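FIELD: query
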Amino acid sequence: MKELYINHIASQLGLKAWQVENCAQLFEDGCTIPFISRYRKEKTGEMDDADVAQVKHYVDVFAEMEKRKAGILETIEGLGKLTPELKAQIEGCVSGTALEDLYLPYRPKRRTRATVAKEAGLEPLADLMWNVRTAHPRSEAAKYVKGSVPDVEAALAGARDIVAERLSESAVIRESLREIFRSRRVESKVTKKAQDDPEAAKYRSYFAFTMPIAKIPAHNLLAILRASNEGFLSVGIDADPERCAKKMYYEFCQKHSYPAPELSEQIQEAVDDAYKRLLEPSITGEILREAKEKADRESIEVFGENLRQLLLSSPVGPKRTLAIDPGFRNGCKTVCLDEHGALLHHEIIYPHPPQNEKVKAIMAVQAMLEKYKIQAVAIGNGTASRETEDFMRKVSLPDGCKVWTVSEDGASIYSASEIAREEFPDEDVTVRGAVSIGRRLMDPLAELVKIDPKNLGIGQYQHDVDQTLLKERLDNTVEFCVNSVGVNLNTASPYLLSYVSGIGPALAGSIVAYRNAEGGFRSRQQLLKVPRLGAKAFEQCAGFLRIPEADNPLDNSSVHPESYCVVDRMSKALGVGVRELVGNAELCSRIQASDFVDDKFGLPTINDILKELVKPGRDPRSEASEFEFSHDIHDLEDLYPGMELPGIVTNITAFGAFVDIGLHENGLIHVSQMGVRGHAEPSKILKLHQQIRVAVLSTDPDRRRISLRLIN
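FIELD: result
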């Protein structure tokens, strides 16, 4: 990667140039983000996965920019207009906007007023005016009255069109105007269409809205732009036209010198035209896109953090599970799963109206609990969830068996997906959905990777933001979560394996096929026997895969095979075997990390090895804890101001957090009701699925809204 880009990335991310350079080289060598952040800490100065991911983003951006530069240089050279100075300016760009500004005068364009004027032979007159080489443009214009130019006014108008286009293509002028626009306010106004369409009511807050564009919250801007796309709002920036025109004229004079009065009048007319006709709409669009990009990044960051917390939710673990997808008229879809999530049995019970077969349902559930030795019960949090939870209290549960409420978000998407059809080709969508609910309780990460994160109900305007950037962030998040937890090589689904560093869908399928044919893996080295899994893929994936019953205990840890030799040296130094050392905190405490540092393994790696030896294969996720909603509420009408309730955070946005308090509607804690002074991001105060206590501020029965306050 060019030094120009390396230094820019380092400056943007607050890193050292050597860190960026090494990281970029590792990417070039085929290394993944999880592998680099976990096993190449000496190379990167212990950059975490977020920093490595950001470097990867910039590396990809600048790779595309290099291709764009090559195309631009080729085009301009083909026109015979590529000067050494222009070439150096283009090659020195690190901003896409600056690059396109330089290219703008040479970019092929549709037929314009300036094009028509040039065809009429008026470019020489425009050149005289542009270069301030005439004090009397009217006298000069008289020389061009011929053919399609009927008089002096037409000649001057055509020359002004050419000058206006040149002004609009000036990189200096465009950037000067951007600075002005960035300091102004965004305005939205209601359109005639909105007045006749009831769908526009949800945007009522923005019918006459104004706010500094530099300060507008992401969710406000995204809502305004969505409404604009739907035709309900007109959106603009209140840039001062007079100030902008003065700035344009000043920039022209700085470059060309101040014109005489008669020419000045013509230039100022061209300036006004260039601003109103060409620059104002163009720069408005640019600044709104720029603001949207910022809003996109903020929203995507919130989404990514929510996804990380969701995927790393506490697992109940491998327990034989009864899962219920609750419902009223169509009954409760009930499935029994073994400790590995395999479907053992399914049936529908009808404990609620209109059937009200409570006794029959209790007997059915009791039979399932006993026959399948159930250890945990999972109830989906959708329609009839609270009623089903109340029903289960009437059932005699086995010792140690607990009832859990599980989010249903995305379960219906999964149940109709190709993945679900492959897993359960003979079952209908209701059974598949209930299975998903049960598996989510056992291991949220393993189940949720099968669902597009956009369908998990944890985002903010996720369908409005840059979809490429969103996918990049979400893919990185899923990959980070899977690799930070580690994957059991002998039980993981192909969908989970596909997110392991260096594997992907094709190799995941090959691994599962080999596993099925050979009866499982006994060592990580066996991976090299999997078709198409070569040395590079093995290097990238091996440290993240676990084999609980492996012959070598290190194969069930995050110690990378390339570091097994270090553990051998440690065990020999203590006079014990590797198996004796692994998991023995007392023996590990005798090891001095610095004694094992050499040219290949630095102190960060040695410290990581020691941490892993103390608790091999440790799961970074916390243990699941019990939770109960208040038994006093069943409908919104049961709430009253000041009422205190337990709740679970279900979604976090830039403006607040949504909380499940056991009703069909989630309540909202606005950021102003989180008990902190000044501006604080909700994600810094609360975490997804956090158990909290809230107080009811108000309810809106018509719109089914609940306002809450966080109780510290």
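FIELD: remark
The chain has a mean pLDDT of 95.
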